[in-house]
Amino acid sequence: MRAQFVLSEIWIGLRRNLTMTIAVITTVAISLALFGAGMLINQQVSAMRGYWDQRISITIYLCTESSPSSHCVENGPATDEDRAAIQADLESMPEVASVEYVDQAQAWEDFQNRFANQQALVEATQEGDIPDNFRVQLVDPSQYEKVQESFRNRAGVDMVSNDKDVLDRFFELFDVLKWAALTFAIVQLAAAALLIGNTIRLSAYSRRRETGIMRLVGASNFYIQLPFLLEGAICGLIGGIIASGFIVAARYVLLDKIQDWFYSGVRLSTGALLSVIGMSIILGVLLCAIASFLTLRRYLRV
Amino acid sequence: MIQFENVTKVYPTQKRPALNNVSIDVQKGEFVFLVGPSGSGKSTFLRLILKEEKPTKGRVHVAGKDLSRLSNWKVPHLRRRIGCVFQDFRLLPNKNVYENVAFALEVIGKPRRFIRKVVPEVVELVGLEGKGDRMPSELSGGEQQRVAIARAFVNRPQILLADEPTGNIDPATSIGIMKVLDRINRTGTTVVMATHDAAIVDSMRKRVIELEDGEVIRDQSRGVYGQAY
């Protein structure tokens, strides 16, 4: 195998169809960037799920004078006996690791802090609107449902919520994003494969004289096809390298920003980022090489 | 060296067979003319030897190999033992004489040292010494065909197939081409040449196989182009 021969053939092929080459590389880059972004979102969501699953806490909101739910209206606000009974029951449950009582003053202060940048909302509330509550940490966070069930509809309890219900709605949004990115990626990849097919076809046509002679003098099929296959693979590689730029940007600009909204520090490791980039590049190279190979079988009789 | 056993070739789109029950035996070192009108099956005969086509019926043996049993991936190795020359030369216009000949060796992976040694020898054998750096467009038809012959012969094939090699060349130059082919034949290479050129066939006095409508109507050693001429 003469490397120099093969390389010069590839270079000639890529340059001869320069506009097609640019189109292919652009399409491959966009599709791989979308693919990589989809993969990153996927990894980010599962990392965050894992993070939060370990930290699910339950909050038991008690009935106040102003609680609007029918349950609270019927039974009236929680009494001190209710509070004591709930606290005692919580502390006696083996699933519960710790219980913290947050009184109305503290709850309102927390609320004010949390929504400090939404003054209108803060001004519309007053102490007593925000119910006092129990913050419950669990020994095994996956057991949250059992604890939650046993306090629902109890006297003095308005509602029992857990972090997971809130987070799941955000995760659903991520899932939609992920599938949207992957769907576009697949459509783009299909378009890229067709474009590569066309480029290789043009290339095979413009080099039909050479390949005809190669066939005649007994060059092996592999030797005849290799420049074309590599031509496709190089397009895939360049597209993949450009895509990895987008993928890195997606991680630092998009995903890390999302972390800030969630007050969570689940940042993907560099290893995870590299593996997504690696997968994208390999996918690009393989896709392009396979598309070239299939085209060659039709247009380059050997 | 080349053996056809009751070979029939029918192309899918045609009813009439291109070759009909042809049996021919060409020995090692022979020089054979294949004559007959256009469409008589000469090109099909050559294509069957190269395994560019498969016979509909019968067997073709080349260089001791039964082509029907030769798997596709071994076909390139068969073709390395067969040189080919065509009416239209089929040179690469962007390569000079030397590079055109060397191309045949490069693409089958021969080492550069070997190529540097044998290419000048073959260029000299076909009578183009000193013209190695000319481009095909700077050569006459006869010279271009010499380059094509050099390329076909540079790998020292056992068989040289020539499909109307003098078809685009004037009679005076054709004689030179025939001398080159004869020289190659004298090295022990089997030469099969399809041609319309009666003068050449008559002057060479070699074996003549005449085809008509896909059938062998004459196989004559030291023959002439045809009784009618």
From TrEMBL, chain A:
GO terms for cellular component: plasma membrane. It comes from the Bacteria. Residues 183-301 form the ABC3 transporter permease C-terminal domain. Keywords: Cell cycle, Cell division, Cell membrane, Membrane, Transmembrane, Transmembrane helix. Pfam families: FtsX, FtsX_ECD. One of its GO terms (biological process) is cell division. It is a multi-pass membrane protein. Residues 57-160 form the FtsX extracellular domain. InterPro entries: ABC3_permease_C, FtsX, FtsX_actino, FtsX_ECD. The chain crosses the membrane at residues 21-41, 179-201, 222-252, 272-296. It is found in: Cell membrane. Forms a membrane-associated complex with FtsE. Belongs to the ABC-4 integral membrane protein family. FtsX subfamily. NCBIfam families: FtsX_actino. Part of the ABC transporter FtsEX involved in cellular division. This is Cell division protein FtsX.
UniProtKB/TrEMBL annotation, chain B:
Homodimer. Forms a membrane-associated complex with FtsX. One of its GO terms (biological process) is cell division. It is found in: Cell membrane. Belongs to the ABC transporter superfamily. PANTHER family: CELL DIVISION ATP-BINDING PROTEIN FTSE, IMPORT ATP-BINDING PROTEIN. It comes from Thermobifida fusca TM51. It is a peripheral membrane protein. Keywords: ATP-binding, Cell cycle, Cell division, Cell membrane, Membrane, Nucleotide-binding. PROSITE patterns: ABC_TRANSPORTER_1, ABC_TRANSPORTER_2. One of its GO terms (molecular function) is ATP binding. GO terms for cellular component: plasma membrane. SMART domains: AAA (SM00382). Residues 2-228 form the ABC transporter domain. This is Cell division ATP-binding protein FtsE. The keyword Membrane applies. The keyword Nucleus does not apply. Part of the ABC transporter FtsEX involved in cellular division. Has ATPase activity.
